[in-house]
């Protein structure tokens, strides 16, 4: 078949399929009956005259996309944040076995970030304790029991109130009843605890010859996705391994998050391959900001962190990052770029609610 005849064949087949699809939608005749019939008639060259000269396959199909049904319940409208431009501080800290030292060191880092203009400060995963199953029970704090039982969160509350900054407090081991959690606390500018995220996806991996770690030996998985309204916008919280699960990020975007924060401690095996990749993927898929904060690397520790704390923009661009040593990163966030990128690539209007759905169980 030459090019001209093939073009005519494809055009007539496509338009005939569009007409039959309309019939299928109106009378519910099985679609496979139409498609088989059309194909056989097209092969034989016995196609009927076109009835809808102005019909378009893309127009007919787009009317059935139902993008508003791709997320159930429908995605919330992006809220107007209290401020649209501000500086974020990512505090990549060294962690020791001395808990008091770790707390004082984190406080100093938050003060330094605020002095440099940060309105939001993020700490690493497990910043008050060595990262090990042996250490979690020893260093765990009862956050709900108050400041005496939780000196780490007491410090975060005090410094957030004194400096008038919002703090995503990395994570610490939390003791609650007879269970342990890997928990991130968020404090507002009045020092009030406004959100507590317990790591949902526990880090249980086994890469022979590289790394084996099972958080589930000591920790319990959290049960609640966490989105919180702050003085610097709506933030979705995940901890380290949570970043691997795109469904959680999609859910946060559907709840109107401007920024996703992932305190994390990727290791020397998966860090070089996946740490930046996952951050950029979560940002570009959902067209919002993603911030991560890691502990600094300690080659002598039982668990060696990759480092490389990073801020990613809503187009998947790296806005600020660092290497593996101690450092405080100060970077600019401008939420107007979210609207710009969503206008450039209108993914929300193009989702195929007729083919797939993400169900937010807690909202449905």
From TrEMBL:
<dbReference type="InterPro" id="IPR045254">
    <property type="entry name" value="Nit1/2_C-N_Hydrolase"/>
</dbReference>
<dbReference type="InterPro" id="IPR036526">
    <property type="entry name" value="C-N_Hydrolase_sf"/>
</dbReference>
<dbReference type="GO" id="GO:0006528">
    <property type="term" value="P:asparagine metabolic process"/>
</dbReference>
<dbReference type="Pfam" id="PF00795">
    <property type="entry name" value="CN_hydrolase"/>
</dbReference>
<keyword id="KW-0378">Hydrolase</keyword>
<dbReference type="GO" id="GO:0006541">
    <property type="term" value="P:glutamine metabolic process"/>
</dbReference>
<dbReference type="GO" id="GO:0005739">
    <property type="term" value="C:mitochondrion"/>
</dbReference>
<feature type="domain" description="CN hydrolase">
    <location>
        <begin position="86"/>
        <end position="335"/>
    </location>
</feature>
<protein>
    <recommendedName>
        <fullName>CN hydrolase domain-containing protein</fullName>
    </recommendedName>
</protein>
<dbReference type="InterPro" id="IPR003010">
    <property type="entry name" value="C-N_Hydrolase"/>
</dbReference>
<dbReference type="GO" id="GO:0050152">
    <property type="term" value="F:omega-amidase activity"/>
</dbReference>
<dbReference type="GO" id="GO:0006107">
    <property type="term" value="P:oxaloacetate metabolic process"/>
</dbReference>
């Amino acid at each position: 078949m030459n090019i001209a005849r093939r073009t005519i064949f494809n055009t007539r087949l496509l338009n005939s399929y569009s007409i039959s699809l309309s019939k299928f939608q109106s009378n519910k005749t099985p679609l496979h009956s139409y498609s088989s019939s059309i194909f056989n008639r097209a092969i034989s060259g016995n196609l009927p005259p076109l009835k809808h000269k102005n019909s378009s396959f893309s127009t007919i199909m787009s009317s059935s996309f139902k993008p508003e049904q791709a997320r159930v319940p429908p995605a919330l409208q992006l809220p107007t944040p209290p401020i649209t431009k501000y500086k974020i501080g990512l505090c990549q800290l060294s962690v020791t076995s001395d808990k008091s030292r770790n707390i004082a060191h984190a406080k100093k880092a938050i003060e330094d970030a605020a002095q440099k203009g940060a309105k939001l400060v993020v700490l690493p995963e497990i910043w008050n304790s060595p990262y090990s199953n042996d250490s979690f029970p020893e260093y765990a704090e009862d956050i709900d029991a108050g400041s005496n039982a939780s000196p780490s969160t007491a410090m975060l509350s005090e410094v957030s109130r004194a400096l008038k900054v919002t703090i995503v407090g990395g994570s610490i081991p939390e003791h609650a009843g007879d269970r342990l959690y890997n928990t991130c606390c968020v404090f507002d500018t009045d020092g009030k605890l406004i959100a507590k995220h317990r790591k949902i996806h526990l880090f249980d991996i086994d890469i022979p010859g590289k790394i084996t770690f099972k958080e589930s030996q000591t920790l319990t998985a959290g049960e609640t996705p966490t989105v919180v309204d702050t003085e610097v916008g709506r933030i979705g919280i995940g901890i380290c391994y949570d970043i691997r699960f795109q469904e959680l990020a999609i859910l946060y975007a559907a709840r109107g998050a401007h920024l996703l924060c992932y305190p994390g401690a990727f290791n020397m095996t998966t860090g070089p391959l996946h740490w930046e990749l996952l951050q950029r993927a979560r940002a570009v898929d959902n067209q919002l900001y993603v911030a991560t904060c890691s502990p600094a690397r300690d080659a002598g520790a039982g668990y060696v962190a990759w480092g490389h704390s990073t801020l990613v923009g809503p187009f998947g661009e790296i806005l600020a990052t660092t290497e593996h040593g101690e450092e405080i990163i100060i970077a600019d966030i401008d939420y107007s770029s979210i609207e710009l990128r969503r206008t450039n690539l209108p993914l929300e209007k193009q989702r195929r609610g007729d083919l797939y759905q993400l169900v937010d169980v807690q909202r449905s």
